[in-house]
Amino acid sequence: MEAAPDTVGERERAVGVAVPGQPVRDYPPYRGSGLRHPRQSLVEIDALADPEAVELSGPVFGVTDVTDLDADLTRQHAGEPLGERITVSGRILDRTGRPVRGQLVEIWQANAAGRYAHHGDQHRAPLDPHFTGAGRCLTDDTGRYSFTTIKPGAYPWGNHHNAWRPAHIHFSFFGSAFTQRLVTQMYFPGDPLIAYDPILASVTAPEARARLVAAYDPELSSPDWSLGYRWDVILDGPSATWTEEGR
User: What's the number of domains the chain is made of?
Assistant: First the structure.
């Protein structure tokens, strides 16, 4: 039986990093990291001969235009989902602080009980018939996005003995093509499981880890309706938000 990992500290940080502040491709405390990056040479696509070939397998939530309903995960079914209603909003910026306009932002998450609406999730927590856990929106002219959703619950994930993921929301950002996709995770402040999460611990620089945790923002909260969290994302540069792609 494997021992649970220590809190984020010098033992985890002693693992070498290829890029300062960014995790290595194989991070032993996060056992799945060895399966989450290419081991073969990339396949070259002749974009001149077939410019649309790179888009054929691109993932997307929905096949229609993005609407306001896509950004409110609490209104996508006939009834109200269970759980704590929250608003998550922020700005998508480039390395110079300029807003990234018209950016497709997608999210997916577990429900309030910590279970995904996916056949691969067999966690013994209840499914919510009124919550699918997937949404999308486009950033406005100031680079701002906004989602209304339910705060996700923690769930076991089998990485080590008694391993539980802290509450988190997966984010995906697209540029002008699917090949420019970036994927990351947003965490919640004050979560005691954060200190024990190997995925977050693989981001070895404390300041980079801190950029993955949202901040409670009363200005984003709605009276008698939802709690507000602010999470800004920088797509590139030395202060870039950590992403799962290309690291």
Answer: 1
pLDDT digits 0-9 by tens, 176-190: 666 678 899 999 999
Domain membership flag for residue 52: no
Consecutive H or E run containing 206: helix 206-210
Q: What is the DSSP letter of 195?
A: G
> 137 lies in which domain range?
67-234
Residue 155 structure tokens:
């769930």
- 34: CB partners within 8 A, 6+ apart: 25, 26
Q: Does the annotation mark 196 as catalytic?
A: no
Of 27, 30, 145, 155, which one is the catalytic site residue? 155
CA distance 159 to 152: 19
Do 230 and 217 form a contact (C-beta atoms < 8 A)? yes
At 99-126, the pLDDT tens digits run 999 999 999 999 999 999 999 999 999 9
CB 193 within 8 A of CB 8: no
Query: Does 12 fall in a domain?
Result: no
Query: Catalytic: 168?
Result: yes
